[in-house]
Amino acid sequence: MIITNYMRSEHRACDELFADAEKSVIDGDFTKAEEQFLKFSNETLRHFKKEEDELFVVFESITGNSEGPTRVMRFEHEQVRGVIGKMAEAIESRDKDAYLSLAESMMILLQQHNMKEEQMLYAMCDRVIPQDKKEETLKNMDKIEL
Amino acid sequence: MFNQGGLSLEQAPPISVVLRFFITGGIFGVILSLFMLFNIDNSLIIVHLLGLGVMASFMLGAMFQMLPVIAGVVIKTPTKKALVVHILLSLGILLQISAFSTSSNPYLYLSSSIILGGGLLYASILMFKRLIEIKDHSSSSKGMLFAISSFIITIILGVVMLLTIGGYLDMPYLLLKLRDIHYSFAIFGWVTLLIIAISFQVIEMFFVTPKYPTIMTKYLILSLFSLLVIKSILIFSSIDTILIDITLSSLLIIYAGVTLHRLYRRRRPTADGSVWFWRFGMILLIISLSTFFIDNLRDITYISFIGFALSIIFAMVYKIVPFLVWFHLSNQGYMEAPMMHDIIHPKRVKIHFFIHLTLFIILIINSFLNFTTLNIVSNIFLTISFSWILYHIVIATRKYYYIQRSFTPIKW
Fold first, then answer.
1. Would residue B275 count as lying in a domain?
2. Are the Cβ atoms of A115 and B208 closer than 8 angstroms?
3. Structural domain total, chain A
């Protein structure tokens, strides 16, 4: 379960960054919120990149299927990227209500996505990728920068 | 080599699948409150309007939506299947109420057992078959499996009882035992296990809370289900079930306490209506089970349990409906898709919470005082409560179809 554990802990770390930014918006501290939101979006986008450039590629090469679950996950990443863009606009224009409304959508969208990955895709990865390949993939993911 | 069926682009069912059940749940809620308001004192009707018309409608709608997400289960052709279940459920409940109110017409009992029982068994067996195929079970998907199993047991016993009362089966001597097992599986199995299964995912992930203790996510649902099975055997053998009831209640009180503690330690700062509904629901669950063994307080036990179940249902509906409207419209490429707060504003949810809170405080107080005036006031609050949620689901649905009718989506 090393893939599931590694990726799940990244999800939780992103959730905490997301919650920090949301708290600052509620408190009206947009300068702090901007900084925290940037951290959240960078970490989330980096996590997506790790998946799209490493994990999914390995999974697709082993299963010979690039039209299955990884395609759905890539599609959902695009949806999340779209909402990140809108949230960034809301934070820039100091629009608290728009930000909190988008944050609600983002949270559900992101958690639905995370549930699918944690319960299905990562479990599949842990099952089909050989142990040495898994370790190599984790090392390669660590090196990925935005 | 492995099952990829859980992940497909079309996995989210069309919005109509979910909304039809939610609107029906709201309508049955209003009908129920009108029954109460006009003092139609038939507890069988009230219990079944609430348990099936309101709770099962909302819970089946939510299951159609959540199975693909929480359990990776895809129900093929969901629109058709949901339509069949919806028609059979609605018609079946009306027949059942007619049977209970006239009580002398055996054909009403027969037809309601076939239509209502058939519709509910069709839905639950459909979900059960998909859930049991899962290879990598999470605590939530396993919990849903036990909840659905409890629902199937509840339905079968219900059908047997309807046929017995209608005179088609000859076992009236078993009726009281069957009734006790039927209610146990409905209340502690179907409703409670489903809420627990969902909470294991929703609380931690949506409110960013510490994890539930592993021992709880691993064994609680299994233990509760096993206790229900043992309880049924004891009821059948006419042996006292007090020890099982104490264990069952203690486990649920611990669960509610842990959930409240998780919510208290949540990292997400929002204290919207949904959080309050969850908190109040858990407090009511604790009240309900702590009064379970005191005969004089039996009314409080029932009232608080109903309040618990409705609190969690409302908490979920107020998140699911605006999200689905936004999600489906955005996915279809409508730039005009309203944001969640523009579909149902959190202030509206908070107002509903206060209506709901007031209602249950009055109900609990009046269980001691038994004032006619307070009874009328609580029935008015009940009517407002169900009308409020129905109105907001209908408005959200209208917004959805208005955007679809009035704008052109961008293809991408």
1. yes
2. no
3. 1
